[in-house]
Task: structure prediction
Amino acid sequence: MSIEPVEITPADAPGVPLLEVRDLHVEFHTREGAAHAVNGVSYTVDAGETLAVLGESGSGKSVTAQTIMGILDMPPGRITGGEILFRGQDMLKMSEAQRRKIRGNQIAMIFQDALSSLNPVLSVGFQLGEMFRVHRGASRKEAKAKAIELMDRVRIPAAKERVNDYPHQFSGGMRQRIMIAMALALEPDVIIADEPTTALDVTVQAQVMDLLAELQREHNMGLILITHDLGVVADVADKIAVMYAGRIVENAPVHELYKRPAHPYAKGLLESIPRLDLKGQELYAISGLPPSLTAVPSGCAFNPRCPLATDQCRTEVPPLVQVTEQDGTPITGRSSACHLWKETIHG
Amino acid sequence: MPEAPDTTATTKAGDVSKTPEGVLVAEAGPPPGKASSLWSDAWRDLRRKPKFVIPAIIILFLLFVAAFPSVFTSETPRLGDLTQHYLQKPELTHFFQPDWFGYDQQGRSIYARVVYGTRASVIIGISVTALVLVTGGIIGMLAGYFGGWIDAVLSRITDTFMGIPFMLGAMVVLVSFNARTEWVVILALAFLGWTTVARVMRGSVITIKQADYVQAARSLGAGTGRILLRHILPNAAAPVIVVAMVALGGYITAEATLSYLGIGLSDPAISWGGDINSARDQIRVAEHILIFPSIALSVTILSFLMLGDAVRDALDPKLR
Amino acid sequence: MADLGKSAGDREPILEVRNLVKHFPLTQGILFKKQIGAVKAVDDISFSLYRGETLGIVGESGCGKSTVAKLLMNLETPTSGEIFYKGEDISKLSGRALKAVRRNIQMVFQDPYTSLNPRMTVGDIIGEPFEIHPDVAPKGDRRRKVQELLEVVGLNPEYINRYAHQFSGGQRQRIGIARGLALNPEIIVCDEPVSALDVSVQAQVINLMDKLQKEFELSYLFIAHDLSIVRHISDRVGVMYLGKMAEIGSDTEIYDHPTHPYTQALLSAVPQADPEGRESRERIILTGDVPSPANPPSGCRFRTRCWKAQDRCAEEVPLLAVPERFRDSGGGAAHDSACHFAEEKDVVGAS
Result:
């Protein structure tokens, strides 16, 4: 077991993103055949930046995160292509030992369900301290002191008294704080948060998101926020990747996406949010259902539900292309996988 | 998907209402495949699995033997001819002949006795299981559904019976009978065996009675009978059936063990366990008296256990 | 719909809840049960529901909103209080009389995966109400009725022999709605009917419910935690906190002129799906968690998390009434609010 602190050679050359996913492909074997859960996904996140990955269930947003963390169930899952670059080094080509040093140390994850992610028979203090004992070789006493310090940092009241309590003795919001403390323990560079507040009430959600944003600022971490909640995204994201049926269909900075989406799916999602001035009228609704991953429609996966779909959309998979202004100047950080992105964004 | 995405329902519904066009958009696309109940899904799953098919064929064969033993041998199993056949060795090439498996120390055809012994094992196994399912099922369902003092009373009774060691209890009960027919053995085993089913049923009913669809039925005004029979029983049955199928092999073992000890079926009933018992003294000189009923017994028990296991896998994929 | 809400004052309510209380006893011991306390899930709640209107009930987990739904459906018996349906107290009915009332009050459940019996076909599920109330539809007519209902909720009538597990979440919720409609009820209690659905499907189901309300003149009690959906569909909104009604009023009164600090905090905590001005938006971040309903704070239930709390809040339970200072103003703030220090605060002004 590795005891000494791990130093990954910093490759902080300009232009190398902190974490980059490049053309990732993940398949699942099911009774109905291979399900392409992730189909050529690429995104990057830099220090201090928040990337929101927006998508519905089955869009592949969580599978991508699980692949980065190396917690994908294999089988039935299988990585069939692509790279995951941490500071320019491909994690998929590393030895298991090297990878393990990065995960946990440099990349940490927060899950939706804090209760099932914590071991019910161990005290939270023990579980928090364990990180230091395993990764840093801290003694039992040091580990406990560290645990208390962490609980203070995520603002759990009376941390000293509660360090020996068990997970079930904490409320949902407090448990999610403990999960955050655990993710922060080794001061990672990147945090992946998979629906961190979905199980929480709104007033508690606000507390937790606030805390997460503050800690991110403090430690200049990259944050990948995986969610389906357009409100949460609007509140905290810097840039957004919209996923649908295993692909990224649109990339955009947060203000751009909400102002003028360039993919009909993103546009439909935004329009279906109830608006004050449209009360009493029908909501805009995207027709149809998200596709099953074993039977993704040919061409653009969104075409059966798209109001703009043409024959081209039914046969040809649209590539992710740079989005430009009407006069042809490219818009930074924007791309769309739609044959008709011009019509969608400009009118 | 074979059929075109379905939008006809939308337009038809639109006729009824006066909503603007295209607003009520049905979630188009029929669900794939045909109507399939969870039972038929399980059946489709099972029928492709050798683990199910092989024991199922063996059990069907055993049932047939039990029902029509005379089809398989013309010999009477109780007729012994000591002068001609005393401990005669088997003739393994004489298929389906009385001397196929040899003769025992009373000159009776072992083959015929194995054939006729099937009946006792199969009937006792299946009847005990059926009785246990009915009594344990009802007691468990009542305790689980009504709760309160009914549950308290029924659960204490169940606990009491569960405290009795199964085999020891069966011996004590059976010794007090002089003529132990099949029915006596069946009732004795069922009397002691229903507790597991009752417990599993109670647990499964308690979970299911809180399900939203039970609440939904209640809010429609459904009575207790309808809720129990249409909503709770079909959903609670699966784990109970699995437990009962696995237990079936155990009941056959119990019968054989009791008969071996001499307190199971009494003469003139023919039981593999009894025959194994009578082979005891001759084992050095005539091992065939022991071997053939033993094989029959093992194959039967194994088949039922395998079947129960396969059914469990199909009904509850989570247990895999 | 909005105009119906306005005139609500001068009409007879179709459903009226008065001082409803539900305490779940906490007991100890197996044989000789001793009550050691009670979870005060619903503690003295009153409200009315008018024909054709939607009353939204919002609140966080543990506030008692689902228990209210169960009490209205007679799935739980109230500890005290009355539920009047057209002037008749239905909370004490049983047997035949209860069954007759049930026809008129139906429910749509939250989770479309657990609210449909997996061993029954769609036809059996939607047809069950007719079997329980055989006088609604003659036997030979039932299959046609079921197919009609499937069409009404936007599903292909040919699916009548399919099983529920063959459908997606949104389609299952449509089946649940069809079952609720079968007996031609007047009131439908919806307990979080879209929160388990995918975002892109939620709008479809909301539109369907809206359409059905107009078509059949239904009254909805719409329980949800998603404030923007509640605002979209409701004529009036009640805000619950720890078993009590904190504030109730028309949708504009609650959303634009909230006077109870909890409502204000709740509204400000909801993330707006609009990144513009997110840095400048004022947000009230509450401290701490919701206290346990088994041991609620004295006086005002919200005082432990309230920034305005004073000694009076610990001693005196605030009544749900129009606050005195707004009584004559006639403005949006003149609605029922259970706070000693009720005052207006524009929390969603940014949008």
